[in-house]
Specification:
320 residues, Rossmann fold, 2 domains, 8-stranded mixed β-sheet, 4-stranded parallel β-sheet, 10 helices, 22% strand
Length: 320
């Protein structure tokens, strides 16, 4: 059994001299060498993709990563793929890949919250658990995975919940797909929701998509700045509500031909469809022709960008 390790940088690949200046310096071979048990589990091949902190990872790099994963998927000697990345935008990269990849070879993302220079680094354990996961017979069924702290999550649902705790990745509302117990992969549930797979045109990929969270008496200027953009993603309060004072700004943005994609700012739940009718409620959003998203704001922006690059915005979201 063979696993391809794609190293992109992040905390898992960072080293420091005094604990306060860590930067990505380690390559895939270094990461594998830190986990001697890997030799008992798989034959691992390392692929160097980048050495960057994850906040610097771009949409173009995500598209290039998809291409590399698709190429590895065609290699009959590769039974699983593990991508290591920094945790800050790991959920966004994993979801981007999930939207664009439908190969049979299982893919899992992982990383670390503690770099190898500090006490009790979590990267080696996360890497070992990820390798065990992608080698499991069931791993390819749920789509791209995120494996962290011995929990297996769907890339579509997982999010980073804590800024520094090692138990940071969680799936709100529904929980993980499975766990790793004593080296055994144990599946607990199967996801029932998925998204279409998009074949993007890389030249059409754009970062000109605004992501805004609705807050009390927010200034309309937060929205009108998106007048000439490729899209506006809005995390509404509650079940899909915004201050009535920003409705004219939303009307202007939509009137300018900018797609409006709305989700909820709540960690759990979805947008209402037919409960409230006041100005600024879900009824207003529907009158504006808003697309409905059922993932968080950062992933809504990723799906919007991918859908635009594939000319399939209507397939990416519902429009109640």
């Amino acid at each position: 059994m063979s696993v391809a390790l794609i190293a992109t940088g992040g905390t898992i690949a960072s080293t420091s001299t005094d604990g306060a200046d860590a930067e990505p310096e380690l390559d895939g071979a270094d990461l594998a060498a830190a986990v001697p048990q890997l030799g008992d589990v798989t034959e691992l091949s390392a692929h160097e993709f980048s050495k960057v902190p994850s906040p610097q990872f771009t949409l173009d790099q995500m598209a290039d990563l998809v291409t590399l994963i698709q190429d590895l998927n065609t290699n009959p000697d590769v039974d699983g793929i593990v991508v290591t990345q920094g945790t800050d935008i790991l959920e966004e990269t994993a979801y981007f890949v999930d939207l664009c990849y439908d190969g049979a070879t299982p893919v899992a993302f992982t990383g670390a919250m503690r770099n190898p220079s500090v006490a009790s680094p979590d990267g080696p354990g996360n890497l070992l658990s990820s390798v065990r996961t992608v080698l499991d017979d069931t791993a390819g069924d749920p789509g791209v995975l995120v494996v962290f702290n011995d929990r297996i999550h769907a890339a579509r649902d997982v999010t980073k919940m804590h800024s520094m705790n090692t138990d940071t990745f969680r799936t709100p509302e529904f929980g993980p797909l499975g766990v790793i117990d004593e080296g055994r992969v144990v599946w607990m549930r199967t996801p029932t929701r998925s998204d279409p797979t998009f074949d993007i045109v890389p030249e059409q990929l754009t970062n000109d998509i605004h992501a805004v969270t609705a807050t009390a008496e927010m200034p309309p200027a937060q929205l009108t700045i998106a007048m000439a953009s490729a899209g506006l993603c809005l995390a509404a309060t509650g079940a899909g509500h915004v201050p009535d004072s920003i409705v004219p700004a939303l009307e202007d943005v939509v009137g300018a031909g900018v797609p409006l994609v709305v989700t909820t700012r709540c960690p759990e739940g979805r947008l209402a469809r037919a409960t409230y009718g006041f100005r600024g409620s879900e009824a207003t959003l529907q009158d504006l022709g808003a697309f409905y998203s059922d993932v968080n704001l950062q992933k809504t922006r990723i799906r919007t960008s991918v859908a635009i690059a594939a000319d399939r915005l209507d397939d990416a979201f519902e429009r109640p």
